[in-house]
Amino acid sequence: MKMKHIKKIAEEGIWGSGYVQLWDFSHANLSEETRVEAVATVASICYGRPARDAKKLVERLWTESGGLPSSAFEFVRDGRSPGIEDSLRNNPQLATYENDPGETKEELVKRHRASIATFRLKVPIFVARQIMRHRQFSYQELSRRYTDDRRVPPEFLGPEKSEVGTAGIGLFQLAYTMEKQIYRLLLDSNVRAEIARAVLGTGLYTELWMMGDQEAWANYFALRLDPHTQKEHRELAQAMRNLLEECQPKLAI
Amino acid sequence: MKMKHIKKIAEEGIWGSGYVQLWDFSHANLSEETRVEAVATVASICYGRPARDAKKLVERLWTESGGLPSSAFEFVRDGRSPGIEDSLRNNPQLATYENDPGETKEELVKRHRASIATFRLKVPIFVARQIMRHRQFSYQELSRRYTDDRRVPPEFLGPEKSEVGTAGIGLFQLAYTMEKQIYRLLLDSNVRAEIARAVLGTGLYTELWMMGDQEAWANYFALRLDPHTQKEHRELAQAMRNLLEECQPKLAI
Amino acid sequence: MKMKHIKKIAEEGIWGSGYVQLWDFSHANLSEETRVEAVATVASICYGRPARDAKKLVERLWTESGGLPSSAFEFVRDGRSPGIEDSLRNNPQLATYENDPGETKEELVKRHRASIATFRLKVPIFVARQIMRHRQFSYQELSRRYTDDRRVPPEFLGPEKSEVGTAGIGLFQLAYTMEKQIYRLLLDSNVRAEIARAVLGTGLYTELWMMGDQEAWANYFALRLDPHTQKEHRELAQAMRNLLEECQPKLAI
Amino acid sequence: MKMKHIKKIAEEGIWGSGYVQLWDFSHANLSEETRVEAVATVASICYGRPARDAKKLVERLWTESGGLPSSAFEFVRDGRSPGIEDSLRNNPQLATYENDPGETKEELVKRHRASIATFRLKVPIFVARQIMRHRQFSYQELSRRYTDDRRVPPEFLGPEKSEVGTAGIGLFQLAYTMEKQIYRLLLDSNVRAEIARAVLGTGLYTELWMMGDQEAWANYFALRLDPHTQKEHRELAQAMRNLLEECQPKLAI
Lengths: 253, 253, 253, 253
Fold this sequence. Notes:
- The structure is a homotetramer.
- Chain A is 39% helix and 15% strand.
- Chain A is of the alpha+beta class.
- In chain A, strands 1-2-3-5-4 form a five-stranded antiparallel β-sheet.
- The two termini of chain A are 35 Å apart.
- The relative contact order of chain A is 0.16.
């Protein structure tokens, strides 16, 4: 899938293999075509690769979860009503820009950027767990269930030598090496992959999309830049805020 | 803390060390006293033990998260408006029954039971991760950050021999034993516990409170009793639904 | 087998689970009966338990190794010609005391004690490997091939905390725990035990008999009390020499 | 050290990384110069590399073990009296061929080849342990104490897939990977290498020289080609015998 409307704006690496990517979804609701691109882009994170036929995927996702639309449809929002409850998923009546041209396209895009920010993150599970406690955001996460380990091999967060010392680094490597080997042995013994993964530590990297409006980000930064938050999560929040300050300063409150 | 108003109704064991407990929070909003008991009961899961001074704890929690109330206040709800948005946390104007006796106490309790169900669960992290994707519920989870490992030692889900065979069982034990030993070695090396835990597999048991209204439960069961859901999560959902059928049949849709 | 003629003289513990036992084999060559007791005592170390029928065992051992007598017959020696080449194994013509009473029994015993010393040791494999480079001694070692692991469970040398620190102790325990678990998993997978044991570290304790004449001991102590010898072997040699000084001073040169 | 007199005759690989090399030491006792080459060749196995100054090394080795010559001097033998007791180490009066030309050089060499065979082997420790129970041979073994792990990195015998299955292979790899990592961690913690190696399994490859006369080899093959001998040792003995049959048939009895 060649992306025309949904674009990456900026990117920062973090902790070796992690990343923080700021994306622009301001064109997501322009037309049926841009909606398909937006939803397929978000949903394909589950599979660890782009969709082969975006349109078909999006059709299928509309009745995915017990007949309800996939949460990928929450990533189609309109800057005029940026909340999760007015996303395409929760408001199927949401008009595209084409059908409802109350503003110029430029105004619409500008408003979207002032009220909604969207990140794609690669972070360890223990950080993702804390992120996903924030219920004001829309999320879509890589699913190892639908992703071939050969395409997205298990990778783990190794802490910094300056913090844990040579011995600490070695212990983390030992644990991670062993976990990957035992995981592989379990798969070779025909144990279900989804249960075999129970041996992989929460330092395992996962990937996720995260979209929120101004209020969601304000709450998030208030909490996650606070010194009581775990160091890794603070570092992530700071990296996200830095990108917003640069590209969408109205959201970096 | 001796509990007078908040009560466990029923309990089922699951997968060896796990459990599913159905609790009655119908008295949570009767008075200031019952609110304190409800909030302290929920919040104390974070610490792995009952609060010493419930009133003080609850006062502190009111401005916990960057000045906002802890999500434990979401467990004080009124059966007449059972949604999360009308919980004490999100609606500080919520009247107690004492101040707003529009119904008899019996009616109120009955209505609560017909519209809200509350579970305390002990499940592996990989199941908790899936549960917490459901944003219509209120949650409070054990925090290993605030819980002494000696009080709540790390325990892991071991799959059944009938499924993974003797060799499979042995591999899981090997992984878990090793993870616990390396975790211990990291702590002995003064590595921060919250990062050392990155080596513990997602088979690690956690504990959580989960409260939802009728709609939340309907969506949850539609999705999690579906054959596409991972076996362990289906087993859990079935166990929860069984308890509801027995004790709060209106919610076991 | 109740022992009447072959006796333990003294014993010292070493490194937690190890031991150094000094034994008296001066009566080994008095008669056919004492020979049987001596050979069966030595040989039964292979099996990790006393022989059920000593006489039968000894008969079988006479043509054990490709038709040759077992080295257990080297432990029947006469103080008048204490070298390994004049042991019963290498000199089948060796007369018992009964048949060749050139001395009083007391003289014979005294002479034996002045010229031959016999130890039973429990030491890690890496020490046993160094011991057995000394070809002037007779040896008989526990054979895990013939010994049930449940009777003699694998045990490992853990170094002292004062030397390797808490972290070091933890790493050794981690390695040993894991080796025992993988060994068990290999056995459960029907891998030959003798090859599965390849995963067990050389810190694994073994047990052995060791008999030598004065010259053998003189060479041994010259080499193994030397500061160039590995610390553990020096500690062992010192413990052996201490027992000799006390009980057979002529051999503690 | 460029070798002129001591030569490898034939070589076979075994079990992946192992080897069986047949060497020709028939020129070892021709002169002082050939003696130096023979002793230095054998002794340098301890260090995992050729000696820089062979002559100096050999001088030092003459009073190595508590004032006694190193066992490397046992590899200088004369075909007319091929036993270990008449080697240069045990009989310092042994004349070189130059000083005692009772035979032509060709006769001497021929006689040596008919009565003495010398191997260099790379085998796991558990096989080396069994080999070294045969006291009629001369041995010299790689010493990890004097060998840099980077020059001779730890390698382990992995059993064949056809015997232990995919799961078995995986378990051996898991054990060996972990042992190497923990060994490395112990070294990084400044634990003595010689004690840290206690965590390495007896599947660890070692290298050794082994020289014996006709009687020694006859006993060895009688015992080690016997079906009661462990499979790996039988395979080794068979490989050695094959090389002898081809190159020194008088010793392949």
